[in-house]
C-alpha cells in the first residue's frame, strides 16, 4: 500500500504538483514509527500547506475536502487519495487514528518529543505549535499586563490632558477620533495594535503615542528607550522618516512643555527585525532572546502584516515584560510568505471593535470619546488593545475606492471604478497583450534610464551622490507588480522581455548578466555585505574603478553600495511580485495578472497591489475573469492562533 502511495507522491513531485520536501517529510515520519497511509497523507498535506503559509492542518478540512485547500482538482488528488484506502469517517475518527501513531503528541499530555503535535483538531509540525502557543500566551500576557487599575484616576486624567493637547481638533465629521482612542488604549497594556489601510494615519498616531508615553513617563522621561523596527529595510527607513517628521511637526505645536526633539534624537535609526534581534548567519537563533532580552521600554514595529509566526515568536521572547509593544499594519494586506497570518489573526475583531464595558468606560474617561454601541461586545484581551483607523487622509479618489471595493469583495464596484478610470488615475487594459505591458515599461522606466545615461560632469563626490539619489528616486516612481513568478505574465518571463524592449529602445545596453542601469532585488539575507531579502538597488558604474559596477541601495537619507561581484543572491527587478512589494509605494504602480489564476489568487493580493500606488494605478489582465475570481476569493490560512487567543 505504501509503495503505491509513495509511487504516486513521486509522480506528483516529478510533475511539479508537490514539493520534494513533502514526500521526504512523509518518508522521514514513516521511518520513526507508524507508516499508515492515512498518517502519510496527513504528513504530505501538512507539508504542502506549510509551504503555502498555513501553520497547521485542520482535521475538519482534512476530513471534508483537503484538495480545495491546495487548489487541486480531482486529478491529481483523486489518484493520490485512491492509494490511501480507507478514509476515516469524520474528524473524531481522524483524531483517534492520529493519536494512535507514535509520532503524534497529544498537546498537554506526557511529552516524548514527537515530531507532530495534535492540539484539539489541529495537526502541527512541532515547531509551529510551539511558536503559535508562545505567541498566543505572550500577546495575551502583554494585553493584560500593566493594565491601568480602574481607580488610577490621576493617571487617566494625565493621559486625557495630554491627549487633548496632542489631538486638539475634533474628528472630521464629528465621529469617533479613533487615532486618539488608539493612543489611550495602547497606554492601558503592554501591547497596542493599530491597524488601518494606507494613509489612515498609523504613523501620525504612533508619533503622538510616543509623545504621550514620553509625557507621562515621569522620572523615567529622560531615560525612555524607544526602538523602531520593520520587517524590511525599506519599511524601516520609511517608518523612521515618517516618525521624525511627525515628531518635528508636533514639537512646534507642543512647544517647550515636552522636549520632543530630544526624544527623536535619542531614538536612533529604525532597524529591520532581523537586525534588531541580532540575526546570525547559519542559525535560526537570534542574539536577543528570552535569556538575553532587548534593552527597550517601547518597541514600535511597522508593516506588522509581513511578520511571520516564527519571527513574531522570536520578537515576543526577546522583549522584556516591562516594555510596551506597538504593532502597526494593515490587516487586509497579504500575510507573510512564511507560515502564519499573525496580524490578521490578532486583528480578527478589529472591524467590529468588540470592546468590553471596562474598555468603553476607560476610553470615555481618558479621551472624552463615546464609542457607539455597535462597537461594544465581549472580545478577548487582544481586541481591547486593538484599534482600527478607518479614515484615509492620503488615499481617497478612485484608487481608494478601488481598494475598498476589492477589500469588500465587491467585484462589480471594482470593475465600475476601473472602467470609469477617473482622470487617468486608474486604468484597466483587459485582454492585454504582452506588448501593452512592454510599452508601459518603456514609458515608466524611460526617465530613470535617461538619468543613468547622464552622470554629472563634475567629478566631486557630492554631485555624484546627488545624481545617484536622483536616479534611485526616479526608479521608485514606477513599478510593475506580478501576481505570479512563472510564465509569460510572471516575474521571470516579464523581466527578460522588458530588458529586451528597453535595449531595443537604446535605453540600456546589456552585456551579460550585469549592465549599467540594471535594477536588482536581493533574494537572501547576506550578512557579509549587509544586504537583506527584499532590498532593491540599481547598478551604476563604480567611480573608483573604471569598468567596475556597484549596486546602490537607498537607506533613508543616505545611499550605500556594494560591488556587483560581491552580490550573490539577486534577480532583475523591473517586474517584482506583489508579495515583495509590501512596505513600498510607487507613484505609478502597474499590476499584471496571469491568464489563469489556478484558483490561487485572492482578494488580499489584489488589494495589496492596488495600495502600492500613490497616484496612478494600471491593471493589465490578459483575461479579466481572473480579476473577478480573485476578488471573490479570500485567503484562508489554517492557524490555531484565534482559537488559542480565546482560551
Ligand atoms: N488627524 C490628522 N490630522 C491631520 N493630518 C493627518 C491626521 N492623520 C494623518 N494625517 C496625515 O495623513 C497622511 C497619512 O498619514 P500616515 O502617514 O500617518 O498614515 P499611515 O497609515 O502611516 O500610512 P502608510 O500607509 O504609509 O503606512 C500624513 O500626511 C499625515 O500627516
From TrEMBL:
It comes from the Bacteria. ATP binds at residues 196-203. Pfam families: AAA_19, RecD_N, SH3_13, UvrD_C_2. Its EC number is 5.6.2.3. CDD domains: DEXSc_RecD-like, SF1_C_RecD. Gene3D superfamilies: P-loop containing nucleotide triphosphate hydrolases (3.40.50.300), RecBCD complex, subunit RecD, N-terminal domain (1.10.10.1020). Heterotrimer of RecB, RecC and RecD. All subunits contribute to DNA-binding. In the RecBCD complex, RecB has a slow 3'-5' helicase, an exonuclease activity and loads RecA onto ssDNA, RecD has a fast 5'-3' helicase activity, while RecC stimulates the ATPase and processivity of the RecB helicase and contributes to recognition of the Chi site. PANTHER family: DNA HELICASE B, DNA2/NAM7 HELICASE FAMILY MEMBER. A helicase/nuclease that prepares dsDNA breaks (DSB) for recombinational DNA repair. Binds to DSBs and unwinds DNA via a highly rapid and processive ATP-dependent bidirectional helicase activity. Unwinds dsDNA until it encounters a Chi (crossover hotspot instigator) sequence from the 3' direction. Cuts ssDNA a few nucleotides 3' to the Chi site. The properties and activities of the enzyme are changed at Chi. The Chi-altered holoenzyme produces a long 3'-ssDNA overhang and facilitates RecA-binding to the ssDNA for homologous DNA recombination and repair. Belongs to the RecD family. This is RecBCD enzyme subunit RecD. It comes from Duganella lactea.
